[in-house]
Design brief:
- The chain is an alpha+beta fold.
- 15% of the residues lie in helices and 33% in strands.
- Strands 9, 10, 13, 14 and 15 form a 5-stranded antiparallel beta sheet that branches.
- Helix 1 crosses helix 2.
- It is extended and about 80 Å long.
Length: 258
């Protein structure tokens, strides 16, 4: 789900959000002598329920709710689903179907459950609607393990909104592989004036207070009034050696400077 569209109560999926890298398959070469490959997604960090709650708060779709309230509702729902599942119900949970399963073998038809050999688990199967959605996506196959930056959210701390920018205030950008690094002169965080490019302002990495793979925080420059988009240009990689070519990402949301 594209978290940036939640505030509009619409769901917009972008295939380009999922990047994958090709690796040689363990089974070796095919009959024609050529090596076959399999794809592994490039995982963009590990999140927990608190991170997801923060994502939801940034969108403003649940106005009036606090992070604690969202987490409480989530916990109650999980408990209710678990209670039904371990009592033999099959629960359709939107993303998938949950049901209990018994693991391990039994010696004969009169055998009883043995905790040393058997265990209770939960089976998960993707819903048909989700399968249909996934079948329409086309992930980007990253060449030479090239990491693609992704911007997930932008929050203006001064106005406490996600659709305005306050010159002189602070903004927080979250995402994956967004750290601005490398010696290319084009690298930086750009506040792009979509009405007049001459008013676009670039912030160098040296002027950014927090500059990590998953978060950027800095002071909003002295922007003129108008509509802006945010763009990142970087050579960041997971290794100490920067990418030879720059990679750029423009956030899909448009911001207003009054």
């Amino acid at each position: 789900m594209n978290i940036n569209t939640l505030s509009n109560n619409t769901v917009d999926y972008e295939s380009a959000k999922l990047a994958a890298v090709l690796y040689p398959s363990a089974i070796g070469k095919k009959n024609n002598g050529k090596t076959s490959y399999h794809a592994r997604p490039i995982f963009r960090g590990t999140l927990n329920m608190e991170n997801i709650a923060d994502d939801i708060l940034v969108t403003g779709v649940l106005k009036g709710y606090s992070r604690q309230q969202i987490l409480l509702v989530w916990h109650v729902i999980n408990c209710a689903v678990l209670d039904r599942v371990i009592n033999g119900a099959i629960v359709h949970g939107g993303l998938g179907i949950y049901c209990a399963k018994v693991n391990g073998s039994f010696d004969n038809e009169h055998a009883v459950f043995n905790p040393n050999k058997n265990s209770i688990g939960i089976a998960f199967r993707i819903e048909k609607s989700v399968k249909k959605l996934l079948s329409s996506l086309r992930p980007v196959i990253a060449q030479e393990n090239r990491i693609l930056p992704t911007i997930l959210s932008v929050h203006d701390l001064e106005s406490n909104t996600n659709d305005t920018l306050t010159p002189g205030g602070l903004i927080k950008i979250t995402g994956s592989f967004i750290r601005i690094s490398g010696d290319n002169k084009d690298n930086g965080l750009y506040f792009v004036n979509i009405e007049d490019e001459s008013k676009t302002v670039k912030v160098e990495s040296s002027k950014i207070g927090v500059n990590t793979s998953s978060e950027i925080a800095c002071t909003v420059p002295a922007l003129e009034s108008g509509k802006y988009s945010l763009k990142i240009i970087t050579q960041f990689t997971r290794s100490s050696i920067p990418c030879k070519e720059t990679k750029s990402k423009t956030f899909s949301r448009i911001f207003t400077v009054i």
